[in-house]
Design a protein that fits this description.
Blueprint lengths: L5 H20 L12 H24 L6 E11 L5 E10 L3 E6 L10 H17 L3 E6 L14 H9 L4 E3 L5 H15 L3
Parallel strand pairs: 3-4, 4-5
Antiparallel strand pairs: 1-2, 2-3
């Protein structure tokens, strides 16, 4: 049992996004919607904060008080020339669980599909080599890319991240599964 249901998390997201947009529109410096689509600009940031907030509350309710680092840098590759590649991890829980948070999944990304798949696979591999877990949570995910001969985004994500570590809130019980997975990992990674 979790403190929040999937519906409550999504409702909180929608309410907070609407409230943020309303308050920003009150600023003297606000441009009209046709110049600045606040919903598009704020949706990912608000979703990240909703996930962090709700997850923190869920964990506190279960006796956990982990350190939560937002927008944490994680080096996942060093090229032959010695150049380091790093990723910004949306949420790092106790420096043991790296969580990628996407409001619309990665199908909306400007990345080439294979580049983003490769990036996530490298992050996952390096995280596991370092004794960390890499989780992925998305508000929604397109069921299939628009191009022919392309694989289902959900299945690709599950294949790369791991079926036990990829969660989509447009699927029933995925909030509960996500929270339970984080709790399981925190219990297994106690020092």
């Amino acid at each position: 049992m979790t403190k929040y249901s999937r519906k409550e998390v999504l409702d909180l997201y929608n309410n907070q996004l609407d409230e943020a947009i309303t308050k920003l529109k009150e600023l003297k410096i606000y441009c009209e919607d046709k110049q600045c689509n606040l919903k598009k600009v704020l949706s990912g940031w608000i979703f990240e904060h909703i996930v962090r907030h709700c997850l923190t509350e869920e964990l506190k309710e279960n006796g956990f008080n982990p350190e939560m680092l937002e927008q944490d840098t994680f080096e996942y590759e060093i090229s032959e020339s010695g150049k380091k590649k790093s990723a910004i991890i949306d949420l790092n829980v106790n420096k043991k669980i790296l969580i990628e948070i996407k409001v619309n999944g990665y199908q909306y990304s400007n990345w080439n599909d294979m580049k983003i798949d490769e990036k996530y696979a490298k992050i996952k591999k390096k995280a596991n080599e370092d004794g960390l877990e890499y989780l992925y949570i998305s508000k929604k995910e397109a069921p299939k890319p628009k191009r022919e001969n392309s694989h289902d985004y959900r299945e690709r994500t599950r294949k790369i991240i791991g079926k036990d570590n990829a969660f989509f809130l447009d699927e029933e019980d995925n909030w509960e599964k996500f929270v339970n997975r984080v709790k399981e990992l925190l219990n297994s990674k106690k020092e």
